[in-house]
Amino acid sequence: MDFLTSIILGIVEGFTEFIPVSSTGHMILTAKMLGYDDQTPIMKTFEVVIQLGAILAIAIVYWNRILTLLGWSRSEPIAKAAPKRLNLIHVLLGIAPALLVAYFARDFIKSLFHAQTVLFALVAGGIFMIFAEWYNKHKARLTAENVDDMTYKQAFLIGLYQIISVLWPGFSRSGSTIAGGMISGVSYKASADFSFLIAIPIMCAASGYELLDSYRNFTSDTIGVFIAGFIVSFVVAYFVVLAFMKLIQKIRLTHFAIYRFVLAAVFWLFIMH
């Protein structure tokens, strides 16, 4: 892998990790178009490294909220905060189901990482997102306009929906959690906020676990491209998340779903043929 490839893949990871378009699908397609096998040990380690760059970006964007969750806010002591506030129990309920499934079904999940599975997941995830947007507008009783209004039940339901993305590569973690939140009576923006927040611990756990198996791939020949990919992924993810939250009322889940259908068509042309 050269530096240009590292930069391209870092851009793709940073751009797609936190929006509901499937970073897995994009990484497979991009690696294929660049002539790389995304299942080689070096590539798998590289993907973990650039995911960590994206995680760092989201942690910086939500730094003040993270401090509040940990018991301290830059603006005021936690004791003076409103009694109804997102807390660590919400986060735990949101990540526990997926972490448990990922731990006990790790080998099975790895066996699902192939092109056909991802292709179908892109389409199925898009359909699920369209349904969630329709259901949120016409059927669901909106009870959480912002993330501090969420109940423990809603956090747990979002955690259950997240399992879909764990068991079905290409479905999109953010897509399943945002759509799941909207079906559960949480607003689009609050669902996105919660999705980004729970991404930090769950992705750190997953990436850290993978690094235990692949740390030997950090050599003098690879460290440079790994660092370049990490930095690019961090910068791109940071600005993408800021832009997404600013434009969230203009870019609906249906728009992302249509994009996924187009991506699936491109995926089918380049990967399946």
From TrEMBL:
Its EC number is 3.6.1.27. GO terms for molecular function: undecaprenyl-diphosphatase activity. It holds the Pfam family BacA. It comes from the Bacteria. Keywords: Antibiotic resistance, Cell membrane, Cell shape, Cell wall biogenesis/degradation, Hydrolase, Membrane, Peptidoglycan synthesis, Transmembrane, Transmembrane helix. It catalyses: di-trans,octa-cis-undecaprenyl diphosphate + H2O = di-trans,octa-cis-undecaprenyl phosphate + phosphate + H(+). It is a multi-pass membrane protein. The chain crosses the membrane at residues 48-66, 86-105, 117-135, 155-171, 223-244, 256-272. Bacitracin is thought to be involved in the inhibition of peptidoglycan synthesis by sequestering undecaprenyl diphosphate, thereby reducing the pool of lipid carrier available. Belongs to the UppP family. This is Undecaprenyl-diphosphatase. The gene is uppP.
